[in-house]
């Protein structure tokens, strides 16, 4: 589900076909709202609104918290958009990122983008190093999988005949990775650095595959990681 640009226009707001979309639009435009406020805005019963709020909460698009109103009044539960909910609205982040990377490449040369990506991967690795000290390879892999999953990669660990694989079923940076393979190279280096073992990239979404697949080895990390083309 996504909220279209047309649905965001004032003319479309009153005729939105789905109540859930209208709730998301109101929360986007007005911020935190309670059930009573949503009921008034949408001219629906509070019971009906609660059903939609429950569904949106289960989908991870909204969340709630208890707030005390200004002045007098009892604390009330208000709803707001989560990061996933914000993602339902049009964004141009990939365009901005691509534009910046093209300028970095033009200003500082062909190797500049790779240096930036590798520095970012190194910083991420250092951030994780302390919390993973003493962990086994499997524990490190599980921690890494959880981190990627939380970042929108829909990552899973699979084992086939004793061989471990880290698989990303979604690439949240596909538009960028398709033009700048340095992003994938840096990700491979990050995985090797965190796991402290060799890793082989066997499939990349940016190269046209349905997913990204990393084969987890048992040897030392490579000094020149190779990507599946």
UniProtKB/TrEMBL annotation:
Superkingdom as given in the UniProt entry: Bacteria
InterPro entries in the record: ArsR-like_HTH, WH-like_DNA-bd_sf, WH_DNA-bd_sf
Coiled coil segments of this chain: none
Descriptive protein name: Winged helix-turn-helix transcriptional regulator
Organism whose genome encodes this protein: Deinococcus radiophilus
